[in-house]
């Protein structure tokens, strides 16, 4: 019996000895890995206590160094260096460093802050497959974030702040379904944000500030747990981001947001901090934000928020910071912001409030600024236009009337049988049909800069104040009216520099904000060509209570010398155009149509041109004064009510009607040749037969 017990005890002792030896071997292996990491980091001060005798799993923790073990395996490693630590020596290899880290396969938390790590982050970081938290803040990593990061399927926190990462945000990050924190602040990342961000349903913190991201923020409304969204100092916009109602911190400072603050912001009951300062918002300020139950910080500084404030507006007692500076607010500051609150900071200079005259603009300033909303056209490199079919290849070499006759016959015979009856022509003051979805205009890639403004001798496009236009038209006197349409009048005016202008006033219904017209006005501002009557600027007249547009005033060049029809058919009292002048006019018109079709993308088709739509300047240069754009349309209100899909159908229909412009050009050629006005299909057929 004793002998059997002794034998069993011996076996137990052997097993325990084996386990202890195996544990010590693991401990020794991982200890050597940590000492290797110490050497690769160039023996930082924080790790001076590490040596061959260190019991890493039972050593004391500190604010800069922590090693956590579980079952004799290292599961957490935190090493935090001094702020501003310089890059490691040139012989440092990030590849070797990550290979060494991979010898800690049980690592779940890795924090390496301010250690001078540099170079591209290797894809082999994915070998740390158990990682749940990765923090590499304040180093010198560069290049793209590797796609292999998406292989870390257990990752819940990814913090890469304060590095030199560049390129676009990988779409593959959306596969990190457990991700709760994504922080990439202070890098060189650029491009648009991937739509896949909106699928990270567990995300609570998204911090992308101080990068170079551009474009729209993807829809984040499905991120129902999102609490922090920090997008400061990028070029994102123009629409306010769509987020869930659990948002606590929302920082959009220093971007290009212009509109779209949702009405449901009143239901952001957990919102504590909102900063939309230094953007381009042009819309009514929502005072109800100040009374949200948890709001403590609010900044709308340096925008163009409008609205009438009153003393009796409520605000949260917990508000500690409010900055309303440099906007277009009128009325009186709410008395709740002026109450004796020791911790509260309130700034409101640069508005038109009546509380402190010294720090406020006069009411007329806010009124003028609200009426004229600025748009600065983007400079675009010119693109080479493609060749235009049939008649639009006329650019020179036409030296006789006979050539014009041949060209006109070829044009009219090709399209005459298939001709769709064109609607009545219109001048700038008259009708125009609609044709394009606003989405096409909002994307700058669809606009080509085909003509350099400096070569056109055309003033830069700008905004006009209401006072300027009143002075130019003698307060819009009836004697200045040139024409009238269903949406308003066209006025003749003279600016202070002596230049003559035509001002088209479009009356709007009250439901449209300035943003509804931004993309159309931006397109108009880019339609500048030697053979166009170019737009010089615009002015918005708005209702001050809600900043919706009441009137749009578009300012065009004006040439009082008359239309092409007047010069070729009604030349009594003036010298008729010579054949060379008529040929030059025809070539100019062809160049203008070619630009409308190919000089911008999408092209502008179905312009329904007639000789009454062509003006001649003082040098008898032909200028097209009619474009087929929604903003110049009599049925514009109907167009705005269309869905995007319906607008796209309009676009497709118009694009396939470029033949109508070719036909109209043939009719213009015919009128130039015969010197008689043409207004009916019968006249076209008869005169075509005459010149064959």
UniProtKB/TrEMBL annotation:
Keyword annotations of the record: Leucine-rich repeat, Membrane, Repeat, Signal, Transmembrane, Transmembrane helix
PROSITE patterns documented for this protein: LRR, PROTEIN_KINASE_DOM
Sequence intervals crossing the membrane: 388-411
Protein kinase domain sequence ranges: 476-692
Gene3D superfamilies the record matches: Phosphorylase Kinase, domain 1 (3.30.200.20), Ribonuclease Inhibitor (3.80.10.10), Transferase(Phosphotransferase) domain 1 (1.10.510.10)
GO terms under biological process: defense response; response to other organism
InterPro entries: At_inactive_RLKs, Kinase-like_dom_sf, Leu-rich_rpt, Leu-rich_rpt_typical-subtyp, LRR_dom_sf, LRR_R13L4/SHOC2-like, Prot_kinase_dom, Ser-Thr/Tyr_kinase_cat_dom
Principal location: membrane
MF GO annotations: ATP binding; protein serine/threonine kinase activity
Subcellular location(s) per record: Membrane
Signal sequence range: 1-31
GO CC, alphabetical: membrane
Name used for this protein in its record: Protein kinase domain-containing protein
